[in-house]
Amino acid sequence: MITIDAPNLPHRHSSESWNDEQEAKAMKPTAMRQTFPNTHRLRTAVLLLPLVLLAACAPLPPRNPLATWVPSPNHDVRRPVLIVLHFTEQQSVAQSLDTLRTRNSGGPVSAHYLIGSDGRIYQLVPDQWRAWQAGPGRWGTITDLNSASIGIELDNDGRSPFAQPQIDSLLRLLADLTTRLHIPPTQVIGHEDLAPGRKNDPGPLFPWQQLAEAGYGRWPRGPLCDPPPGFDPWMALAVVGYALDDRTAAVRSFHHHFRGMQGDTLDAEDLRILYNLAQQIEPATNTCIAPAPGSLDGPVAQSPRQGRQ
Question: What domain range includes position 153?
Answer without folding.
Answer: 78-219
